[in-house]
Design goal:
With about 575 residues, the chain is an alpha/beta fold. It has two domains: about 325 residues, Up-down Bundle (ABC transporter transmembrane region fold); about 230 residues, Rossmann fold. The protein contains 19 helices and twelve strands. Helix 6 packs antiparallel against helix 11. Bound molecules: adenosine-5'-triphosphate. This is ABC transporter ATP-binding protein.
């Protein structure tokens, strides 16, 4: 399945803003009450601000011109009250929407992170971690900014515009129509340019993701970069992505700013129309000075929010571009679904490959028609040249991927019919590159082990002793409480492998795969591991992938994996012969 988010983006760009908005609203369905309250607050706020000019015009015509200062004072007081109430309603909606934005950010980040936890290994093979981090952090924040700062302003501006438009038309239809005519150009201009603005912003967000991916790659590999003196090369690469980001940011900035001057120009034209046409109407006696002052204020009330709308519209386009990038992750599904067991296919082995073919992508088949049987309690070795397909075979046993064709049966049943919990209880896997989490040795060896989550240190030490692992634990200065960081720079690769080994053995799986699991361990400790493995339950099946043949001396069966094909190798000597003359991967 294609999980490459950057390749998906073109297809998804075709989705309409309406569909995107519908999905977004679903996400904030729980905020409905707060959104209504904020909407009421903003309607009140806009309504109150709209009443202002009417009161001013009325005061001029009825009290200032007649020099009735009592009336002027009274209406001044009313106006003050209107503006103070407007301030409170404005503050209320800002507070409410600030909360909505933060809660949305929280929900969204959780939703994306949970989705990332659901997705299969192929997804992570096809996407760079830096880009994913940028989507979780940067894109969600852009959406939050729109919701907490712009959405209600956006709605408020529209309400003010509509209200002011109604006042303008009802005071004088002709003058109103003339005043509003430039707005038609604004609407047409906005409709025509919005897709282009969104595209420019999407490009910019993509380049932020690219830059983040580049930073992540160089930080992850800084030792190699320093050892190979590749700092200049990485500086150059970073410079390139930074340059792309700079250019796309300039492009997005230009696109984002295009509305402001155009809206400004058309607003000024509208005010000029009001002034000239209004004075003409006063001269011919069909308009009063007070009405003209109100009129100019309403024209300002119409065009000022329209100007603001230019900036808000841009913020909306940025938010929609971000939402598209977030949705791409949220809409993905894991293609490794649980299926019904196909009862027509049986197996008497613990694990069996039946005519299995596999390719990582459609381009090249990696495994061709593999038939393998792993029986209970036996030890199997997979050997073969680099790139021959050993790790791929082990990955299929752990269901990191599904076979493209054929069947893999675990305990006689389709491996795809097990829940992840059932499967991982039966199958343990020690990876070529063990990964440790920040915490202690104890945290790491109990990782994913539901049986021992609540044991005390003393109980765990006893369990470790019973599993013959105490000699391994003794290698760590502070035993179970030895501190580990995710980067694990404070312990050696061999020590990491020992922790991974203890982690896997303590889970007591029925089938344990060791993929080059002892490659970095000295021979004496390796013998210790071998004796621990020998003492595992008689029922445990071992699958050992190794380049060093001494590690597989005790195997009951040796398979030679080369160029995506698997054959029985017979004895250790025959295996060695196959390795020596074994053809390399084409
Ligand atoms: N994630 C991946 N995406 C695409 N191709 C892959 C991926 N992982 C491995 N391959 C390809 O699959 C083939 C088999 O690789 P695999 O890792 O299974 O070999 P191996 O026998 O375990 O090698 P080694 O002894 O070096 O660990 C190689 O050609 C490799 O390039």
């Amino acid at each position: 399945m294609n999980y490459n988010l950057n390749a998906l983006s073109n297809e998804q760009e075709k989705q309409s803003t309406y569909q995107a908005l519908k999905r977004l609203l679903k996400l904030i369905a729980a905020e409905r009450k707060t959104l209504w309250l904020a909407l009421i607050a903003i309607i009140l706020n806009s309504g109150l601000l709209l009443v202002g000019p009417l009161l001013i015009g009325y005061t001029i015509d009825n009290y200032i011109r007649t020099k009735d200062f009592h009336g002027v004072l009274m209406f001044g007081g009313i106006l003050l009250l209107v503006y103070i109430t407007a301030m409170f309603t404005g503050y209320t909606q800002t507070n409410l929407m600030g909360g909505v934005g933060q809660r949305m950010l929280f929900t969204l980040r959780n939703a994306i992170f949970n989705k990332l936890q659901e997705l299969p290994v192929s997804f992570f093979n096809q996407n760079k971690a830096g880009d994913l981090i940028s989507r979780v952090n940067n894109d969600t924040d852009k959406l939050n900014q729109f919701f907490s700062q712009s959405l209600m302003q956006f709605i408020g501006s529209i309400i003010t515009i509509i209200g002011a438009g109604i006042f303008l038309l009802s005071i004088n239809t002709e003058l109103g129509a003339a005043t509003l005519s430039p707005a038609i150009f604004i609407v047409l201009f906005t409709i025509a340019l919005s897709p282009w603005v969104k595209r420019k912003n999407a490009k910019n967000l993509k380049s932020v993701g690219g830059m983040s991916a580049e930073i992540q790659e160089s930080l992850n590999n800084f030792k190699v970069i320093i050892a190979f003196n590749r700092r200049d090369y990485f500086r150059k690469r970073f410079n390139e992505v930074n340059d792309i980001n700079y250019k796309t940011a300039i492009g997005a900035g230009l696109a984002n700013n295009i509305f402001v001057p155009v809206y400004g120009l058309l607003s000024s034209i509208a005010q000029l129309i009001v002034l000239l046409f209004g004075i003409h109407l006063i001269v011919i006696g069909s308009f009063s000075l007070g009405l003209l002052v109100s009129y100019i204020a309403y024209a300002t009330n119409f065009y000022n929010p329209l100007r603001q709308l230019a900036a808000l519209w841009t913020s909306f386009q940025v938010a929609m571009a971000s939402w598209d990038r977030i949705s791409q992750i949220l809409l993905l599904n894991n293609d490794l679904q649980q299926v019904e067991n196909d009862k027509t296919i049986h197996s008497d082995a613990l694990l069996e490959f039946k005519n299995v073919h596999f390719s990582y992508d459609d381009a090249k088949e990696i495994l061709h028609n593999i038939n393998l049987k792993f029986e209970k309690g036996k030890t199997y070795a997979l050997i073969g040249p680099t790139g021959g397909g050993k790790t791929t075979t082990a990955s299929l046993i752990s269901r990191l991927y599904d076979a493209t064709k054929g069947n893999i049966l675990l305990d006689g049943k389709d491996i795809r019919s097990y829940t992840p919990a059932q499967r991982t209880k039966k199958i343990g896997f020690i990876l070529q590159e063990p990964f440790l989490f920040t915490g202690t040795v104890k945290d790491n060896i109990l990782y994913g082990n539901s049986d021992y989550q609540n044991v005390t240190d003393e109980e765990l030490e006893k369990i470790i002793e019973d599993a013959n692992l105490n000699a391994l634990l003794a290698i760590f200065d502070e035993g179970l409480n030895t501190k580990i960081t995710a980067a694990s720079d404070d312990i050696s690769l061999g020590q990491k492998q020992l922790i991974a080994f203890m982690r896997a053995v303590l889970r007591n799986p029925e089938l344990l795969i060791l993929d080059e699991a002892t490659a970095n361990i000295d021979t004496i400790t390796e013998q210790l591991l071998s004796s621990i493995l020998n003492k595992l339950s008689k029922e445990t099946t071992l699958v050992i992938i190794a380049h060093r043949l001494n590690t597989i001396e005790n195997a009951d069966e040796i398979y030679f994996v080369n160029d995506g094909e698997v054959q029985k190798a017979g004895t250790l000597n025959e295996a060695l012969e196959l390795l020596l003359k074994g053809k390399r991967v084409s």
